[in-house]
Each structure stands twice: as structure tokens, then as C-alpha cells.
């Protein structure tokens, strides 16, 4: 496993590789868990060579967010990636990716401003910008993203489509603990009690998924109210139902069964930890 510590080193090693092999990229911010490792396993099935990037991207954190505190476990991450026989790890420093004079960034438009984007202004512009840089540096043929961050996945698909990036974005289903809690690096902030309380999020998704299948005339408003009631023990930031690929918000009076690719999104605080999750609902094309 080759650890590439600079943009130049990565460009040199990976452009050679990408010429004669298929290359899959798994972009991460490190502090790897089983969810990331599953993305790597998928990458290995898709391509001959795999590069995992580890970079805590300052551009996607707001001024009052946890950039400084974000967990960093580089040596442990390397061990895990070695055990999966990953070919390359790209681990740049911020001053190399964003040298002085760096100016350009991507505007992800309305998609980047709704749901999480409403509460984290600029977050998705930062994600899209760093991902496009990673795509350009690695010249990967595939990049794998988890559906837990479904809005991020859609933002990246939009960026690649709008800017004619040649690589293919591949989605991986959300990986969950046996309890149902979606895996996230931020779960390690949770106390034992908070971890139990957090189960309210996956339980709500599961219950409402079942409810709207049984009740075919269930409206967006009814389901949203049920979600808020069920999430009551937590401090809910939002519970929203979206339509289609661009995740536009559904009208309260719409019936779920009449919608194109409806999805339920939740963001809630468990103590000081912000957790997100989402699931597909049963609409006309799902
Ligand atoms: O999902 C993440 O870990 C990050 O948002 C990503 C895609 C690595 C970009 O920094």
C-alpha cells in the first residue's frame, strides 16, 4: 500500500495507474468505520486498483462546527486499509490542496441549500469542490459514496453531470449497526445513553416506511407530523419528505404514493451530536 502525501506525488503515481488499470476512489475524512470499509470492498469489486483519500476538508465545515474536534486516527486508518489490501492512500495537507491564492469553488445551487444545506450554509459547495479536486487529481474511473449522506451523493452526481467529469459515481447502501443506527464517524461522540436515544431515528424511518405502505392515502403532512412526534425525545433539526433526484421538498397535501422517488430525511441532535439518516418511501417509481 503506497501512501501519497502530496498532490504532485498522487498525480504522478495515479495517472500512470489509471492509464493501464481501472481505478476506484473512496473519498473519506478518515476515522474509518465498517461503513467506509464496505465502500472499499465495493471499490475493489469495481476496479483493479483502489485509492482511498483521507482528508478532513476545512472547506465543508462552518465556523461553529467541529473541524478542529473532528476525530483523526490516521495510523489506525492505515492499518484497516492495509488489511483490505488497498493500493493507495492519498493523505494531503490542507495547504497543498488549498495553497494561498486558491479561489475557485463550486456553487451547488438549490440542491445544496435545502435539507442539511439550510442549516450548514456552504457545506455542499465545500464538499463538491474538494471531491472534484480529488476526481481531477486521482483520475479515478469510479468514486463510491454512501447513501447515508444521500444529499451529498446527489450533489456529487449533479456536479459530475454539470461539469462533465468523466468518472462514474457509485452509490452504496447505508451500513447500519445491528441496532439499526447508521454508522457514522460522529457516533463516537455519543455516550452509552445517547446511543440508545439515537435509535429513535432509524426506528422512526422503519415505522414510517411500514406505515405509508399500509396506508395508501397517507399524505406528506401526515407522515411528517408522525415523524416529528416519533422523534420527540430528540432535538429535531428537520424531518422532510423530498421528491425526485434533485430532492425538492414535497407539498404537504401530496399523497406519498403519487410522488416520484419520495424520500424521508431526518437531522436531529442527540446531546450535542448532530445525526442524519434517510430512507426511500413507496412512491410511483419505487
Ligand atoms: O462524506 C465525507 O466523508 C466527506 O464529505 C467527503 C465526501 C470525503 C468530502 O470531504
Walk me through what this model shows.
The chain has 286 residues and is of the alpha/beta class. The protein has helices spanning 7-20, 34-46, 74-83, 94-97, 116-119, 123-138, 150-162, 192-197, 200-214, 220-230, and strands at 2-4, 23-28, 49-54, 88-90, 142-146, 168-172, 235-243, 248-249, 263-270, 273-280. The strands form 2 sheets. Strands 1-4-3-2-5-6 form a 6-stranded parallel beta sheet, sandwiched between helices. Strands 8-7-9-10 form a 4-stranded antiparallel beta sheet. It is 37% helix and 19% strand. The chain contains 10 helices and 10 strands. Residues 27-29, 57, 60, 127, 130-131, 149, 152 line the site of pantoate. Pantoate binds next to β2 and α6.
Series of secondary-structure elements, N-terminal to C-terminal: EHEHEHEHHHEHEHHHEEEE
What is the distance, rounded to the nearest whole angstrom, between the alpha carbons of the first and last residues?
41 Å
Instruction: Please give the share of residues in helix.
Output: 25-40%
Structural class: alpha/beta
Bound molecules: pantoate
Shape: globular
Please outline the major beta sheet.
6 strands, parallel
Radius of gyration: 19 Å
Helix segment count?
10
Mean pLDDT: 97
Percentage of residues in strands: 15-25%
- Total strand count, please? 10
Order of strands in the sheet with most strands: 1-4-3-2-5-6
The residue ranges in which pLDDT falls below 50 over 5 or more consecutive positions are none
